[in-house]
Predict the structure.
Amino acid sequence: MSTNPLQPFLNLVPAPFRNRYILVLTLFFFWMIFIDKHDVITQWRLEKTKAKLERDKDYYAKKIKEAERQRKNLQENGERFAREKYYMKKKGEDVFIIEEKK
């Protein structure tokens, strides 16, 4: 009768983990959660990055719409814009600036 030299170490392992199916499932889950290329931590980081990029996309879409609106307004009212912003005037014309008190 030969005795297993690892028997004292096996007795230290809880009984459910001595079952080979439980052991394989435990190793599988450990592998999938911590070691695999698509582990939980990586997925969480990717999800955070994706959410940030979507927020940035919405922000820049709003900025693009605002810039397009300003461009259209400038094309339609170019003379008005130049007169108000840069105080330009036509020849022989006087410009009076009226500022409101705040």
